[in-house]
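Curious: can you check?
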Amino acid sequence: MRGVLFDSELESLLRDDLHHLDLTTVYMGVESERGVARLVSRSRGVLAGVEEAADVYEKAGATVGYLLGSGSEVSSGAVVLEAEGRASSLHAAWRVAQALVSYMSGVATYTRLMVEAARRVNPRVVVATTRQTPPGLRRLWLKAVLAGGGVVHRQSLSDEILLFRNHLVFAGGRGLGEVVRSLKARVGYKRVGVEVGSLEEALEAVEAGADYVQFDHVDPATLRSWVSRLRSEFSGVSIGVGGGVDLENVGEYAATGVDVIVTSAPYHAKPLSFTTIMERRP
C-alpha cells in the first residue's frame, strides 16, 4: 500500500508537534549529529500506517531504509521501520510517525479479528466499515480497515444510493416502495440499497426493486429467520446488517447468513503499542 497523506497534510502534522523548534535538541547542540530511529512493536497485531510514518520521516529530512508494509502481522519486538538522518530530523518525526502507526494498527488489528471471527462460521461474509470515522481521519482509518482485511461500506455519500428512514421524512408522503421504484427508474445501472428495521419493510423494498437491504439493530435470532424468508423468495438480493455489531457478537451475526456485516467498532479499537529507539551513528 502507498501512503494516503498529501504533502500539505504531512507538513501540518509535523508543524503541530514541532511548532517553532525542538528546544531540547537545539539547546543540547546535537541537531547535526547523525543517527538511526527504529520503530519497534511492543505487542502482537496487524500493521497499518507504516507508509505514512515513512513519509513523515522523509518530509522531516530523514531517509527510510526499511519498513514492513501495512497488512503485515507483527509480534512484540519486531522492527517495523528504520529511518536514518540528522538528530533534528529524527526527533521532529518520531512521535508523529509512531502515533500514526499505533492508532492505525489498532484499527487494522481489530478489523482482522472481526473478519476472522465472522468467517469461521460464514466463509463468504464481508465485514464492512461505515463512514463514521473520526472527523478528518477517514482516509487513514479506511486504509487501516483494508490492511486488516475488511472492506469499506461507503467512503462517502457519493459512493452509492442507500435509503434511510430520515430520507423518507422528506418524501412528501410517499411510501417506501414508491420511493424505491422512483429511484430505480432514475439511477440507471447504480444499485439501490435500503436500511430496514423489519421483515415487512425489507419485503416491501425488495418487491419494489431494491438490490440490497440492510437490517438495523436486529438481534441475531430474529435476523436468521428474516434472512431465510428473504432468501426463499428473492435469491438475488444482497442482505446486510448493522448496528451494535462488534468483536463479541460478530460470529453470531455472521451465522445468520447475511452477505455483509456493517460496523464502526474497529474505529474505537485500542491503539497497538509501539516504541521508538534511537542510536547515534558516527
